[in-house]
Structure of Geranylgeranyl transferase type-1 subunit beta:
Amino acid sequence: MAEPELEPMEEPPSPPPPDYYSNPEFDKDRHVTFLQMMYQLLPWQYQNQEINRLTLAYFVISGLDLLSSIDRVDKAAVASWVLSFQAHPKSEDERNDGQFYGFHGSRTSQFPGESRGVLSHNGSHLASTYCALSILKIVGYNLSSIDSEMMLTSMRNLQQPDGSFMPIHIGAETDLRFMYCAAAICFMLEDWRGMDKEKAKEYIINCQSYDGGFGLTPGSESHGGATYCAVASLRLMGFIGDDALSNSATSSIVNVPLLLSWILQRQATDGGFQGRPNKDSDTCYAFWVGATLRILGGHKFIDEKELHRFLLTCQSEYGGFSKFPGQFPDLYHSYYGITAFSLLGESGMSSLCVELGITDQAATGI
């Protein structure tokens, strides 16, 4: 999924020292326990993320699926809960009112606005819709039961003249995160009526920077998360193939050699990946950057041994992963730490569909 606007769980004033937990192995059972705990009850520090409840649920459910432990949850109950967030027009007159009829991110965003329009609520959101459809695929729900025509028709209202997407009909920033969400939604629903693919492609191409990476918007600094969103979107839309590195000389719509050079410079001396030059290594970029390399066919260039070692320094004794070594775990970095170990081929884990951010089995339904 595109990188959400989530802050990690608030950290204590004095974090433990970097060597407070030294387990040289991936501790699958602790990670399953950590996610089960999050499934039952989120800590109070997540209260300010209530608007992103579906995104947090995606981290939990998809994480358990990657850990081959999706049987720990009631799939039917999860599907019913997710479907309760779907937005529907109240009448035929509202079907063409400019709103997006996807999924709300939480209960609060379902509250009606005040009669005088003083209070404007979130409404359904592209990121929440991506997370909802991902969860439904993971638990085996048949997406053909959803009114995809209404969802996709209304989603086109979010696409801007330059090809970018707003995440919500009342207006917000437009960048590659929501481009990715729109592409993933169309791909999962097997219906591309939700976007103008050619306009979307041109917007993505315009986000490639002089150094080879992609910024969130045209002209902005290259960023690991934005680069994943760009490359994964192009792959989902069919504009780049399985092994872009082998076919990049003349046929690619992006500068693949320059892109590869920028990506490979993101693995730091400590073995981890950074999101931008001169930044510290961060657990989540093992996915954002590593998955991009996998899509391009360049995963073999990663120093997997050193990346594995870095990730274990971020593994918590409580289960889960922290952003940096020696800190307490949060749900966001825990999920992307788990995806990173799936990419590294960790034993006992399910394989990851890197373009969609869910397991291969969930993506294909097989």
Notes: The chain has a mean pLDDT of 89.
